[in-house]
């Protein structure tokens, strides 16, 4: 512990941002900016019981948002398979049987029937399951600032205990290693999903544009790659406008695609191989592996792509109802994919060497160009869905304090989930275009894509198993049946795609490792900073002593101090008073508090209380991982002062008090707001002691580089800064 405290010795930067009472804009780091307390309810309204027509309308809307990646997978599945030789009829029958049972078991049984039940107040996805497990097991590894909180109205929400906890739940509560392993699994799933946001646009658009080769043989691969890069470049440039303006086209486009491809598939079945559905017998899978042995196992790296995008069924649960997603998948997406793959396979059985262009070759010439146009539009929609999902994941990571504070913009006043991050957008654009231009071969991108798809599914299987044991209390026999079936099935897929690491499969690993390093470095530095603040926090007695100094004056105005801790006052306060020799007449110490729920009810968003000194108050802004953070505007000042006024009035009714004192306190609050608003926030600059380990030096330096700049990382490595004052005010803690 001594080493940690020594490592946490910091210089603290105090940044003072002033805006007038008229409402001039101001900017804060994401985690230190107040929330919009009027926007959302505590739970997702979509997952309440709705009528059949409402569900059907929602099911139609899911086509353009949820299933874009899944339903466009026929574009690249067969071209991604590394056939070592000319495939036979039995090879194709075996491959179709594998795809059919993969879609059936993973798509229907795992996701549609099981995963959709594991929602966290209507929200789905890796973060939702992780948050649900943490809350139910009463463990909190998110951040020290979230665990050092007491006496809060929402506390019962945080600690929904389980009567008679299972042994596994108790193990997680006792073992820090188990909790960190769970955190690592959740982080890995998140990183892989971000990798999906890079690879899906690349492989979808490239595969769709490959359709130009068949009617125009002179079109080269370089031209197709260049056109694909241009399409993606334009798509990313349009992100800043939001998807609302064009989203009304998404569902019709995907509806047309979902309808057209199975019709072509039925035509192909009748025309080429009417007996294709005999491949539904699993014995064709046995024959396939018996005939191909290792080559058949390697080809699974391409077969897994038939289920790509299935994770979106679970991740997008918060935007739609469970029944609407199930209806859309069971009655449109699943039959469409089964018939489309059957038609492709029927064509390839008669034309076994056309697998490198297995989609466009089986399209009849009469409808070739309409299908090409629809395919290109569908690929763009699928890309847009994954790009938007990546923005949402980054936003959740920032809110959870797992990712550096990037700018997040809400592009729609009606849809809180529609967000845009300029930095992330351009990073994604560079990666997507680079993937196409460097790894233009669809098979190489498919190898990389297979790694993402299989690992995300495996992580979901592990988390769902924990949910079944710890929360649902499913009989162990059923849990074992579920885990053995899907862990074995997905484990075989993972083992197959890992063989393709040298052939493009390293791309998502490299991306995920960089993202994981960023997330862990940020998390580690934030933990050390909070430990330092908790150790050096100021209590009310110390504040009273500071204010009793005759040289310290109470000046007009309203001041917000943003702090990471709730039990105690931030160390920045001491530096501020000593150097400014003043404190505003109304000072509010504001803490943003993350709750292990998706959304916080408006009436529970702002919690205020008096701190025992005149004009000094504490305020907690509570938010969930699906809540939106309002990064611009100053409505929150009015909301906080309104809540504070109600608190003062309610306190006067509960305790005997002089009405004139209450009115005086309210008047001072109003006058302070009119005089002007000051926002004070602090940044810890880490400086290293003699006994600090090399690991601490490296991680803290990395955090400094992320949080401030590379120059501020030098002291964390033990390198002294030049004797020169930087912009800002620095105080030794």
From TrEMBL:
Transmembrane helix as UniProt keyword: yes
Swiss-Prot/TrEMBL keywords: Ion transport, Membrane, Potassium, Potassium transport, Transmembrane, Transmembrane helix, Transport
Pfam (any one): K_trans_C
GO molecular function, one term: potassium ion transmembrane transporter activity
Localization per record: Cell membrane; Membrane
Transmembrane segments: 58-78, 98-116, 181-199, 219-238, 250-273, 297-315, 327-347, 367-387, 424-442, 448-472, 479-499, 505-524
Segments forming domain K+ potassium transporter integral membrane: 59-542
Domain of life: Eukaryota
Keyword field contains Methyltransferase: no
GO cellular component, one term: plasma membrane
Domain K+ potassium transporter C-terminal: start-end pairs: 556-731
InterPro entries given in the database record: K+_transporter, K_trans_C, K_trans_N
Membrane topology category: Multi-pass membrane protein
Family recorded in the similarity comment: Belongs to the HAK/KUP transporter (TC 2.A.72.3) family.
Function: Potassium transporter.
The protein's name in its UniProt record: Potassium transporter
Natural source organism: Corchorus capsularis
């Amino acid at each position: 512990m001594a080493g940690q405290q020594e490592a946490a010795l910091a210089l603290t930067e105090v940044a003072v941002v002033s805006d007038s009472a008229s409402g001039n804009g101001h900017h804060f780091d994401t985690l230190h900016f107040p929330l919009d307390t009027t926007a959302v309810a505590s739970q997702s309204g979509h997952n309440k019981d709705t009528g059949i027509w409402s569900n059907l309308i929602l099911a139609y809307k899911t086509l353009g948002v949820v299933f874009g990646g899944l339903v466009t997978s026929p574009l690249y599945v067969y071209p991604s398979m590394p056939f070592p030789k000319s495939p036979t009829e039995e090879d194709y029958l075996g491959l179709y049987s594998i795809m059919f049972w993969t879609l059936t078991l993973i798509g229907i049984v795992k996701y549609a029937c099981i995963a959709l039940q594991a929602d966290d107040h209507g929200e789905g996805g890796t973060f939702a399951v992780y948050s649900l497990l943490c809350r139910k097991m009463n463990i909190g590894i998110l951040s020290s600032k979230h665990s050092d909180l007491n006496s809060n109205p929402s506390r019962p929400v945080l600690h929904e205990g389980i009567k008679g906890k299972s042994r596994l739940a108790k193990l997680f509560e006792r073992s820090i290693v188990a909790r960190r392993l769970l955190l690592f699994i959740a982080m890995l799933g998140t990183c892989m999903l971000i990798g999906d946001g890079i690879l899906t646009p690349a492989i979808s658009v490239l595969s769709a544009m490959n359709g130009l080769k068949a009617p125009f043989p002179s079109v080269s691969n370089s031209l197709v790659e260049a056109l694909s890069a241009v399409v993606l470049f334009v798509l990313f440039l349009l992100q800043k406008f939001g998807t609302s303006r064009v989203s009304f086209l998404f569902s019709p486009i995907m509806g047309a695609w979902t309808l057209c491809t199975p019709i072509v598939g039925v035509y192909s079945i009748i025309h080429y191989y009417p007996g294709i559905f005999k491949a539904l017998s699993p014995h064709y899978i046995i024959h396939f592996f018996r005939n191909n042995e290792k080559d058949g196992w390697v080809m699974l790296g391409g077969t897994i792509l038939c289920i790509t995008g299935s994770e979106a069924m679970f991740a997008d649960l918060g935007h739609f109802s469970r029944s609407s997603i199930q209806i859309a998948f069971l009655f449109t997406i699943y039959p469409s994919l089964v018939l489309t793959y059957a038609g492709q396979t029927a064509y390839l059985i008669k034309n076994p060497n056309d697998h490198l262009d297995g989609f466009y070759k089986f399209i009849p010439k009469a409808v070739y160009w309409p299908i090409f146009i629809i395919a290109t539009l569908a690929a763009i929609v699928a890309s847009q869905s994954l790009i938007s999902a990546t923005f949402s994941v980054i936003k959740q990571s920032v809110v959870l304090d797992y990712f550096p504070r990037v700018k997040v913009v809400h592009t729609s006043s009606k849809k809180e989930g529609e967000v845009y991050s300029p930095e992330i957008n351009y990073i994604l654009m560079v990666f997507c275009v680079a993937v196409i231009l460097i790894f233009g071969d669809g098979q190489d991108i498919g190898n990389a894509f297979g790694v993402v798809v299989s690992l995300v599914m495996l992580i979901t299987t592990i988390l769902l198993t924990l949910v079944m044991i710890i929360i649902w209390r499913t009989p162990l026999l059923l849990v074992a049946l579920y885990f053995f079936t899907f862990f074995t099935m997905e484990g075989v897929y993972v083992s197959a795609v890992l063989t393709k690491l040298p052939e493009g499969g390293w791309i998502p690993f490299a991306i995920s490792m960089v993202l994981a390093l960023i997330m862990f470095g940020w998390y580690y530095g934030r933990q050390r900073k909070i430990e330092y603040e908790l150790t050096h926090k100021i209590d009310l007695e110390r504040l009273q002593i500071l204010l009793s100094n005759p040289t310290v004056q109470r000046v007009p105005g309203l001041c917000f101090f943003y702090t990471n801790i709730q039990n105690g006052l931030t160390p920045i306060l001491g530096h501020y008073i000593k150097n400014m020799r003043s404190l505003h007449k109304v000072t509010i110490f504001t803490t943003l508090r993350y709750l292990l729920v998706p959304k916080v009810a408006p009436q529970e968003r702002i919690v205020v209380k008096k701190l025992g000194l005149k004009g000094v108050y504490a305020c907690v802004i509570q938010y969930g991982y699906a809540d939106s953070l309002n990064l611009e505007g100053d409505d929150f000042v009015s909301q906080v002062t309104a809540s504070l006024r109600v608190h003062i009035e309610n306190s006067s009714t509960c305790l005997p008090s002089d009405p004139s004192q209450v009115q005086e306190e309210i008047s001072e609050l109003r006058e302070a707001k009119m005089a002007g608003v000051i926002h004070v926030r602090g940044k810890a600059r880490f400086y290293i002691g003699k006994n600090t380990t090399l690991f601490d030096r490296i991680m803290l330096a990395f955090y400094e580089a992320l949080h401030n700049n590379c120059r501020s990382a030098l002291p964390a490595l033990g390198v002294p800064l030049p004797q020169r004052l930087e912009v800002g005010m620095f105080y030794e803690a």
